[in-house]
Amino acid sequence: MSDEEDDLILSDLNDEELVEQMFDDLYDGLKEEIEEGVNILLERGWEPYRILTEALVGGMTVVGKDFRDGILFVPEVLLAANAMKGGMAILKPLLAETGAPTIGKMVIGTVKGDIHDIGKNLVSMMMEGAGFEVVDLGINNPVETYIEAAAAENADIVGMSALLTTTMPYMKVVIDQMVEQGIRDDYIVLVGGAPLNEEFGKAIGADAYCRDAAVAVEMAKDLIARRHNQRAAG
């Protein structure tokens, strides 16, 4: 099938069919189709926030569930997340103009001494896919970088990743420093990485250990909602 026929088909669909098709295209990691779908919905007068939540976040929710259930694997999820990023690139400036709400803001990075980033990148993409604003600090981050970035970005969540047993303990260094500075309770701290487990997360004082990107999104949503409720009650 030629590209022209594809183009014709997308624009021939009604809104509901197009969103369904975008779910499929996201699932299949088809970036150009997602970008086209976003542009078609914008032309039809959809609000950027509505496209984000209904078409992109809706589609990534399906991807996240199938990843969690072992139906999809990392390479496929990265492709889906990359397609999502294509759509997000179009929407981001428009969302900024309209002051659309984000669920929360996260700074995330791999800890000092560790240069692994596939897991972290996956979490970043899935969090963006769920409607969070994400600031990715990259790899090999010392404690100062986390603390400065969290303050500068006014973050709700600090995410730390490690793939080596030798760099895992550095997560505690960061949390201890936060405690020392009296800012620990200002942030939700999420930790993840292959060698970690729930006991380790508890032992170092993190809010939650996330075994994969899908769990990280669920945890983040849950903890943010709880925090909002506590503030409302307070």
TrEMBL record:
The keyword NADP does not apply. The keyword Metal-binding applies. InterPro entries: Cbl-bd_cap, Cobalamin-bd, Cobalamin-bd_sf, Met_Synthase/Corrinoid, Meth_synthase_dom. Residues 103-234 form the B12-binding domain. It comes from the Bacteria. GO terms for molecular function: cobalamin binding; metal ion binding; methionine synthase activity. GO terms for biological process: homocysteine metabolic process; methylation; tetrahydrofolate metabolic process. GO terms for cellular component: cytosol. Keywords: Cobalt, Metal-binding, Methyltransferase, Transferase. Residues 9-103 form the B12-binding N-terminal domain. Pfam families: B12-binding, B12-binding_2. Belongs to the methylamine corrinoid protein family. This is Corrinoid methyltransferase protein.
